[in-house]
Amino acid sequence: MPAAVNSGDPVLRSARREMFVTFGIFLVAVTYTGIYCGLNGYGRKVESLTFVLGFPDWIFWGIVVPWSVCIAFSLVFGALFMRDGDLGEELPSEEGGL
Hints:
Helix content is 62%, strand content 4%. It is built from three helices and two strands; from the N terminus they run H-H-E-E-H. A hairpin with a 2-residue loop joins strand 1 and strand 2. The longest helix is centred in the first third of the chain and has 32 residues, at 10-41.
């Protein structure tokens, strides 16, 4: 196994933590959307259909709201919690190379 996988590299730990948080939020949103839309969007009588801000209710509560929350979470998470890690000293570039 590469040394970076088992090392205590803070940049790697930070990247993994950010990946797990982001992927976890994504899985929660996809699961909620699938279950909510499946239960409330299919096999429904037209008479029971209501609209919220111009969207059918099941689309608004099953897609618009959870994904709007994901967008808001992404903005806050990216602005407040994600940080650039120090990658060390910059190596001198070789002239004439690719």
